[in-house]
């Protein structure tokens, strides 16, 4: 039997009673395969901590054992500290093939004292170019922070510590491709990208600061629609309200049936994008000189309709 680290939390209820909630720290050995890096990726602490390392020879990476067709996944990550310029730490979902779908968190390293940049992107049928970038409102190297991707039939939402930072809506009715039919795995990696990652490639990786290490813990894939293929037979886990990999149907209903963000989430999204967004492809008219992507103009039309 796989051992688990137990965290015992005392919760005070509004009725004045105290109960003990026993939480099992996630065991990466059950959910994750380290797929590259020649020993630079390691699962330690009885499966509760995964460290990826990067040196001049190679980075490292892992992937989930399972595939998902829709889901909400969470990972706690502590990024490379100090002078991490040129390095990229990733947490993302991706399907296979030449016309793949992909939902990206990429964390672009920095010179000591400068802020990390969170780089997000959405690929549909092999086409990306939907980058939005943000600074963080905390030091992501000092301790672990939670990063989440919600992907359901209506929208994709990126979260940092529970705050939405980006939403990509399903606008298929307007001709915008949306990931809906290709199962994805979760991936994580640490690699060298000093040809573009920091100040457009002007700042190179300082290998004397290596090896660089990023740490991961508490991967949560309880709220997903499972997908597996055995001898040509595809098996899916029900993902409509009332059925999921999770034992909580109410939790399933909440994320799977969500068609948009509530008012408090919209307020949080506006706060993040106003104060911390540093690049938005929907504002880059120089790059898209022949016209902004459809989803960008659709967003503006929706705003004009509401006003």
Q: What would you say this structure looks like, in words?
A:
Helices cover 13% and strands 41% of the residues. It is mainly beta and 307 residues long. An 8-stranded antiparallel beta sheet has the order 3-6-15-8-9-10-11-18. The longest helix has 14 residues, at 263-276. Residues 1-24, 241-250 and 300-307 have low confidence and may be disordered.
Question: Structural class given helices, strands, pairing?
Answer: mainly beta
Per DSSP, what share of the residues sits in E-state strands of 2 or more residues? Answer: 35-45%
Stretches with pLDDT under 50, minimum 5 residues = 1-24, 241-250, 300-307
Distance between the termini: 59 Å
Number of distinct beta strands:
18
Secondary structure topology:
Elements (H helix, E strand, L loop, with lengths): L5 E7 L5 E7 L3 H4 E5 L4 E4 L4 E6 L5 E5 L2 E12 L8 E8 L7 E7 L8 E7 L8 E4 L9 E7 L3 E6 L2 E7 L15 E8 L19 E19 L2 E4 L12 H8 L6 H14 E4 L13 H13 L1
Antiparallel strand pairs: 1-2, 3-6, 4-5, 5-16, 6-15, 7-12, 7-16, 8-9, 8-15, 9-10, 10-11, 11-18, 12-13, 13-14, 16-17
Describe what is shown at a glance.
With 307 residues, the protein is mostly beta strands.
Features:
disordered C terminus; single chain; hydrolase; disulfide bond; eight-stranded antiparallel sheet; mainly beta; disordered N terminus; GH16_AS; 41% strand; globular; EC 2.4.1.207; 307 residues; ConA-like_dom_sf
